[in-house]
Amino acid sequence: MPSTAARPAPSASEVTTGLALMFLSVMVSPLIDIFAKLAVVTVPSAEITAARFAVQALCMLPIVIWRRCFIDFSWRQNLFHAIRGAIITVSMVSFVTTLKYMAVADAIAIFFVEPIMLTILGGIFLKETIGWRRYTACGVGFFGAMLIIQPSFQEVGYVALLPVVSALCIAIFVLMTRVLSHREDPWSMQFQMGIWGLVFCTILLLVGEGSGSDIFDPVMPEGSAWFYLAGVGATAATAGILGVYAYRAAPASTLAPLQYFEIVSATIFAWLVFGDFPNAIKWLGIMIIMASGFYILWRERRFASKPVSDTSEVTLAP
Fold first, then answer.
1. What is the spatial distance between Cα 55 and Cα 48, in angstroms, rounded to a whole number?
2. Rounded to the nearest 10 degrees, what angle do helices 162-180 and 75-99 cross at?
3. Short-list 110, 119, 92, CA closest to 197
4. What is the dihedral of CA 94, 142, 23, 250, to 10 degrees?
5. Which residue from 58, 55, 52 is spatially nearest to 39, judged by alpha carbons?
6. Structural Rg of the chain based on CA atoms
7. CA 214, CA 212: separation in Å to the nearest integer?
8. CB-based contacts of 51, cutoff 8 Å, min separation 6
9. 267 φ, ψ to 5°?
10. Do residues 263 and 109 make contact, with C-beta atoms less than 8 angstroms apart?
């Protein structure tokens, strides 16, 4: 089992390496959504999500075998991983469905209420101390999300709320990860997440076969759709592996602010590929969400004075 003892402070070179790897990860992550948006035109959301999980699991398998992580598998842990797999499946299917109707940058910006939700849920379920300042920042962040959701809601209806559903699922997923990561290897957790996610996606596709649903009814991909599906899985695996090594090199509190650059890189890629660019109101919402997120991270880092065990696992980007 991995040790839960506090890790020694990383050197300056390790922190620099971690920052560089995390920067690469957040630059690659939006490509997952670019490929997903291209694929969702002809392929149902659940099938795209299944392809993503399948490629990620295949990429993780050699590492899990090499590290002999499978020795620590247990039925009790599998139950927790199954629940995590169900939650991450709901999150990914919800987000991919959103991409069929919304701009990538808008959807990702709304999704970034996840750290705010995580702060609130951590206070409720893990009894983490959350002061009034952070709760205020959470409220401000939600206001910023509403600035993006409101015009999107007028354009696409209730689909605009799906990134919020996705963010809530990821927040719950991260809470479970915090508990499990005290006693399990992060590579093992990534691998089992992919396997269970694939299982649940397969069930959804079997149930939805013949329904005509553009979310659950499977199709045989044609032409460029195969390339888009491969792109979703390959970029997700690349971003995940970069994230794992980033968190192993530098503290999570140091790396967390860089995740917000994903909104910027997503905006650039979406503009280059689809010609989408947020208007002034949406940019205001994006800036408010980022500002509130940075403030919450700053407050958490300020009060996290005691060394803690390395319990981080990179979560799947939306």
1. 11
2. 160
3. 92
4. -110
5. 52
6. 19
7. 6
8. 229, 230, 232, 233
9. -65, -40
10. yes
pLDDT in tens, 30-80: 999 999 999 999 999 999 999 999 998 898 888 888 887 776 666 667 888
Q: Tokens 């015009």 identify what position?
A: 151
The answer to whether residues 162 and 148 touch, using CB atoms and an 8 Å cutoff, is no
pLDDT digits (tens, 9 = 90+) for 92-136: 999 999 999 998 988 888 888 887 787 788 777 766 667 777 778
Largest CA distance in the chain: 56
Tell me how far CA of residue 31 lies from CA of 63, 234, 270, 315, in angstroms: 24, 10, 9, 16
Dihedral Cα 149, 155, 161, 166, nearest 10 deg: -100
Residues 6+ apart with CB under 8 A from 198: 50, 53, 54, 57
Q: What angle do CA 195, 201, 204 make, to 5 degrees?
A: 145
> Residues 6 or more apart from 299 whose CB is under 8 A from it?
131, 133, 134, 137
Asked if 33 contacts 318 with a C-beta cutoff of 8 angstroms, the reply is yes
- Quick one: which of 279, 231, 22 has its CA closest to 271? 279
Are the C-beta atoms of residues 317 and 29 closer than 8 Å to each other? yes
Tokens standing for residue 247: 């968190």
3-state class (DSSP) for residue 218:
coil
What is the rounded distance in angstroms from the CA atom of residue 35 to the CA atom of residue 26?
15
What b/e sequence results for 265-275 when a residue is b if at least 16 CB atoms lie within 10 Å of its CB, and e otherwise? bbbebbeeeee
By the 8 A CB rule, do 184 and 72 touch?
yes
Which residue type is seen at 179? V
* CB neighbour list of residue 203: distance below 8 Å, 6 or more residues apart: none
What is the distance between the alpha carbons of residues 163 and 174, in angstroms, rounded to a whole number?
16
Residues 311 and 176: beta-carbon distance below 8 Å = no
